[in-house]
Structure formats: C-alpha cells, structure tokens
C-alpha cells in the first residue's frame, strides 16, 4: 500500500542518516585517539599485579607492557552500542564541539596602563559590568521550555497533549491534558521569571553603584559600569569593591601609605590584610599631582591566582626614570573590603577579567539519587504502557487503521505516568526544607538547594575539612621548647619572670655603657669565643624573635569625643591594652603575639617601616623593618629583617614549618624528635631561627633583591634564589606549639556517624603529624584501630611497593600526604581507591583545594555511592560543589563555603541530626510519595484496560473531563501529599540507634522490588474495582461510571491510611476534606454520573443516594483494601522491620 511504502522509505532514510553520522563519529574518535596517543602513552599502561614480590618487581620489567589500558577499555562499537546509548555519546560530542566553537575566549595578554588616561589604552578591555542572569528577553521562553522538556516526563506529556489536536487521536476534552501541563509550566515559568527579575535587579543595583573618580577637574561620581581601565578611583573605608581591581598608588589614612582590607568574600579568610602603596606616588605633595606626572603600570595578564601579582610601575618624566616593582601587597582585588583608611588606585582589570570573576566556579545542577531512580521507573512505566497498547491492538487483530488505534491506546493509558509526580515531589522537597530550617535543635540551618534533601538519607562517604570544621580555628599557645628545656601552660610564669629580669638587667646596664662613651661594635662582640648562653638569655632571644617575626598589626578601636568627632587611639599614642586588638592573615601568628604580650613583651605599634615593642617596665623598643618575606604555601616559612633603633644591629628572623626549616638551621639533635612529640599532642609547630647581619652583608643582599624584584620573567624564582642565599646556617632559637581546639561535641558526632555506617575521610592542608593527632583526639580513628602512615612516594615503583605493604594490613586507618596521593592516582587509581574504600577512616594531609574535589569525584566514579563534603573555608568550596551533597559551616574563615553549599549549618555537631533525622524522613517520605502517586496512575489505567477489553477493545475513555482532573487534584491530592508528614521512627530513636541509617543507604524504600509490589497492588485493585462494578451491577450496567469512580476514590483514601505509619492531625483533616469535596461535587457531576452508554450520558443522580448503591460500593472497596490490611498486619507481626522492633 502507499502508506506502507512511505513508512518504509522514512525508516530507510532514518537508518541511512544515523549510519552516516555514526561513521563521522568513529572517524572523529580515531583522529582524537591518534592525536593524543603519544601524549597519553605512559597512562595507557595497565597496572602491575599488586601482590608481586619485590624481586619480581625489580627484575620483571616486562610487566609494564602486559595489558595496555587502551586495549582493555576498547569496546566493540557496533549497531548495538549505537542503539543502546551510543547515540547519546554522538550527540554529546557534537554539542560539545559546537559549544567549544561558540565559546572561544579571547586570549588574555599583559597590558600597559597609563595613570588617569584610559584613552591611551591601545587594547579594548571588557566592560565593567556584572551579569548573573541566565536569559535575556529573546532566550527566556525558549530557555525555560528547554530546561523543562529535556526531562523525559515533561516531554512525554507534551507529545501526548499535542496529539489531542489531531481529530482522529482525540480522546476526551483538551483541558484534561493541557490544564495539568499548563499548570506545571506556569509555575515553573513564573518561578524562573521571578528569579530572573531578582537577578536583574541585583545586577542593576551593583552596576549602578556610585564610585568616586579622580579627574583633572576634581572628584566626580561615576557608575560602576562606566569605570574603565586606567581610571583613578577613590575607595573609602568599608566600601566593597565589587567591580574593579586596583593596585594602590596613593592613600591617606593613619598609616602612611598603607591600609587594611578584608578578603572573606574572596578567599574565605576573615583576618585583615595589610596593603601598601607605591613609594613614588606616596611622595607626591598633593592628590592632584597624580595628573601632572607621566607614569604607567605594566601588569601581567589576568589569571586565576589571587595570591600573586607581578608588575612594574614606571615614571617617565623623572630623570632618571623611576622603576618600582609591584606585587600582591600593592593590590586590591575585586570583592574585597577596605577596612581602614582611604585608597586611591588605578584600575587594571575590569569585568570578566577580574580575579573574582575568573575564579567563579559555576556549580553543577545536582540531581538526587531518588530522582534518578524515579526517572528509571518512569521509563519502565512508559515501556509497560507501549506494551499494553500493542497487546490491545493485537487482540483486536490489527484490523483497520491499527496505527491510529495504537496511538489512541497510548494516549488512553497515559495516566500510567502521572504528571502530578513531579509537582508532588517538588512541593514535598520544599516542605522538607522548611522543616529543616524550623528545627529548633539545629538553629541557624539554611537549605540553599531544595532539590536534594533526600540525599541526606543516602550518604555513604563524608569528606570533612579539619581546621574550622572539626576544630574551632582558635589557636592557644601551649608549648615553648628551647632544646634543653620545655615550658608548658603551667610554667609560663617562669618565662615571664625571666623576661622581666632580662630587661631589668638591660636597663641597669645602659648607664654603665653610656659612661664608657660608646657601645661595643658588632665586630668586637662577635670576635670573642662562643660562650654557652644562659637559659634567661635564650628565653629572652626566643620571645623577642617571636614578637618581631610576624605580619601582625595592632589595631586600636576608634572612640568618639564629646563634640561627636571620631578620634583614633593612635592619634595621641594611647596604646592601652584594653583598646588593642591584633589583625593578621593567620590565627597562629595572632596566638603567638598574644602570648608574647602575656609574658611581658607587647607589640604596641606597627606601620610599613617600623614596629614598636613595650617591655615589662614600660620602655618602648623601636625597630626599623628593612624587608619582609611573607609566608607562602610553597616556601612554608616567613622572614623579616629588622634594625634595632638603639643599637643599629641588623637581624634576620625566620619562622616556618619544621620540614622547611630543618635544612636552614644549624645542626642539632633535638628538633625532629620534639616536632614529632608536639605533633602527637595535636599541636601545630613552628621553628624560629635568627641570623645576625653586618651592614655590608645587608647592602649586598638588598641590591641583589631589588634587582630580582624588577625582573619581568621568572621574577618569583629569582627573588626566591636571592632570599635563599641568606637562609644558611641560621641559629635555632626555639620550637613553638599552638593548639587548635576541637569543636563542641565533635567526638560523639563522629562516633554517631561511624555507627551509622558512614565512612569519614578527613582532607586537610595541614601537616601529617598534626592531622594524625587530630584524627585520634577527635575519635575519627577509634582507639582500637591501627593507623597505616603511607610513606612518601615519588615514582611508580615506590607507589607499587607501598601499596603492596598497605594491602597486607586489615581494618586500619590510612594516613597519606597529597604528593603521595597524586603519584598513586597517576599510576594505580583503581587499586588505590579500592583499598582506601575498605578503610574505616582515611586522612589526606597537605591537600590542595583541587585535590579535595578530585578525591570526591574519584569516590563518585569508583564506588557509585553518595558523597557528602563539609567545610568552612573558601578552600573547601570546590570540594563542596563537587560532592552529591555539600554542607557549609559558618565559621571564622567567612561565609564563602556556607554560601556555596547545599545546606548551611552553624556547628559540626548539627550534622548528626541533619542526617539521622531529616535525611531519613526526607528519603522515606519522598519514596512513599513517589510510589503512591505512580500507584494512583496505575490503578486508573488498569481500570481503563479492563473496561476496553470488555467493550471489544475499543479505545474509548472510561472517565472524561473533570473526573480525570479532579481525581489527580482535589479528590486525592491532599491526602497523598500529607505523606510528607509521615515518619516511621521518632527523632530521639533515630539518634539513639544510628545503625538504622545503614538500611537507608541500601535504597530498599524505593527499588524495583517495591515498585513491582505497587504494580501488583494497582493491578489487583484496578481489576477488583472494575470487575466488581460489573458483577454487582450487572442489572444496572448503565451506572458503571458512578459506581467504579466512587469506589476508586474511597480506595485511594483508604490506601493513604494504610501507607501512613505515624498519624498527624493534618492527615486526618486532609482525608475528611477530600472526601467532603467529592460528596459536595456530586451535585455538579450530572454530565459524568448519569446513565452511561458508550458515547452518551444523561442525568440520573437519584441512583447514587440509594441504599444498594452504598453497600455495594462499600463491598467493592472492602474487597480491594481488606486483603492488603491483613497482609500488612501479618507482615508486621511475623517479619517486622528493624525500626518497628525498636519502637515496640
């Protein structure tokens, strides 16, 4: 026939087209693999057998070539692969290719910026605007519709609804299909529109923020969006720079050429940071003189690193030209806050090229495991729907236009997949989020991602930060070790007495020295033989070094005078102890300076070039700061060169981690041992050393250092090389130990989580010994467990041998450093993850933020279990965003982690209730709600199938119009949705027996087994309701609609009651309210509850009120529900679930 030939041509064309694309895809894949074959060759080697002997490893080098990974992973890609998922890969590759072409980014280059002259910039820079909107006017409707219809459920209902415009496929009224779909889409569009308008308003507010711009004519106000590269901008105290990055050139406040900024919104650190201006511009007599000079800045290209900056400042009109190097200390990045003073700076980067925008990581849209499981069940229901439709057409004998009949049956059974499933689940998630935030036992908890509350009940791995998460990030000085003597908290008074005595001796010796007419020179002092120093002098030198070697600045609170004017305490040099606070980038340094204050040596003032110490007797000691070498994660140390004002002595002080300082200090036999002892006590250690410099030595160093700082290429390496020339044979002064206290109730919380079957991994940037000690003190590692410390490895062979050694251990915790972890993952990724997952606890120390996120992704890929990451700092954001469930703590490191997380809590101990109680309830409730909504669709589809089979397989609907809409909404919606209030275990019981949580991770509440049980229940009840109506009402067959529909409503209400485990008063109200609505609406259902004859209805409401109708409907309902109640009772009697045993 013509129809069959057209169909055959269409199918043939489709297959040819797909085969063409498939061949293109295979060619692209082969080109891609050949392109990277040489580059990836080492990684293509398969892992060696791990239990191989050491001799075999050394001798049998051929094992490296045994099974190339590429050959193992290469799969047969035929037509079967293409049909069962290959097309997804093809489409994804094409989309990625197109996206890569469309999103080609402009190459970022270094730039030359003239002061106050944006017009001189040769290059065009991005506009200084913030744009967080997802759509614009043109893309809003298509974008929102795409986000909705990319899911199978919504796309399915769109196709079904559109089919009703075809007259031959039309079944019932259009509004029965379009009204629910339109409601869902309307809610989504309105919600997206509201969010988009809010984003637009926020962006507009930020882009319209006024800044003071310095021009030749004076100060003018400009919008943030009008700021250009080269503009001179004035930024005042507590003014947040949201849009521009400015290296500082001129500033006026209580310190000459310096200011403090807060960077908590950029890097998560709440401590103030000192920023300095360029000396050349600082010497100008007035602000307006900035326009009278000819100067420019050469700045590096925009990059991600917020902790480094390289550039040069050049003044051309000077003779000779002035060149000054610029570093991170001369910059203010976007999203930082000026905490004190006023700043005038030139804009270097704008808009998309600022550090804050470049470092913005867009979080992935997280989809819960329960949603994925329901999506799979939905596809299974669709398959069942198609099979049922084919069976109906086959039983018809494929007569007539069977294609049309097949599609009509598909539409007729479309209620197998209920559109209300997504609506009910989304409303339930919102209800769970509201309950979490209203829980008085976990105050301050915020749900920022309302789509994944069920994930809290499915977690297997918890990855936690250490500092600020398990610990309070409050440092307390605990130990001072001088090599031969150690001082703890109970002997600090001895140190104080030594300090008082030593400075009293100095004061008494001053007159004698003055009477001699001169002070002994350094040369004469150092020429004598070395004499063993007394304990008092050693303590004095150690405390003095700790008080000088730091980046701490004392800050004095402003107070208001009588006339209302604000004065600073420093204006009159009022260095009162009560008014002083310390600011630094590290809490360790603040703890050390506070300790020196407690023993008598107080830091009272500091600026760019000097600092002052107050002795116990009140004398002020002044020191000139010649150089500062800030702490970096690479060097693991910081240093300072100072000149004492009274004597002129130049001293280089340095402190840092023991691993960095061990090779710098003079030989000793106690440092390594004592560092280990302090680490075992859970203390953070710092090694302090010094080196005396002559004037000639310092001048030589300063010349080489300034020359290195002006280098454009490899500046960092050259500067480091010059500094290292000083770091030789330094005198070891002392070893300090600082304690980071544990958070409240950390131990019982970790024990609770461990008993719940959750494996806890601690990922920290701290040193191995400290991390190990915190793991023990917090009971992350239980007392009876062994700890296997993974030895440092640097190549494949060492990693192989160490993994072999680790494999022989059983039930022990693993401690590994970030460097060793990287080596293991490079060569033995699968084996390492497999071994690590068997450990009860894992501690990864010296981890970078990128490594933390990498570990999360490894667990997701290799175990397919749900992961949770918890942290409190900006360095934890990547880990939190990568995890299936991210939890942020509002701590001392700022709110960056809290804002980026899915859930925000105020204390670590709250995670126990969040998981055990709310995670359990959310998962159990959503599982019951989702399956019940599907049951509600399957039961009515079963009745439709029975009805059609009895009436000669006719594709005629059983219920039409408002009956179908009312069934899914007002008649059953409230009782079904009331399942979100159900709970199987009381909160106290869930916390008392955390072992109950283990059952949740197995996913037994929503599985194919429970789904098949609900399918059987639906088929049974649908068959009983339809056949019962036909058998009992054989003589009044015309009333079949009223009979079956009334019994259906009663059955659904009773099934809700059967499903509920703990009654709530709102559940009772919902049951009676829905039944009352049904009874009240009978008066308006004449069109549907009249006498029924295939295609016509005529009113007959009097029949509904008769006694036979009532008892027969009750009998049908009883037969459909009573067996299920009996089965439930017997099951609870003879095979009760674990939670019911505890409840009883």
Q: Would you give an account of this structure?
A:
The chain has 1144 residues and is of the alpha+beta class. Among the domains are: 227-359, Distorted Sandwich (Calcium-transporting ATPase, cytoplasmic transduction domain A), CATH 2.70.150; 421-442 and 914-925 and 948-1141, no CATH class; 461-470 and 743-905, Rossmann fold (3-Layer(aba) Sandwich), CATH 3.40.50; 474-739, Calcium-transporting ATPase, cytoplasmic domain N, CATH 3.40.1110.10. Helix content is 46%, strand content 18%. The strands form 8 sheets. The protein has a 9-stranded mixed beta sheet with strand order 16-37-36-35-17-31-34-33-32, sandwiched between helices. It has a 9-stranded antiparallel beta sheet with strand order 19-18-30-29-28-27-26-25-24. Strands 2, 3, 4, 6, 12, 14 and 15 form a 7-stranded antiparallel beta sheet that branches. Helix 5 (140-149) packs across helix 7 (175-207), helix 20 (695-709) packs antiparallel against helix 21 (715-724) and helix 36 (1040-1059) runs parallel beside helix 38 (1107-1134). The protein is elongated. The model is unreliable at 27-76, 250-255, 512-531, 560-573 and 1091-1099 (pLDDT under 50).
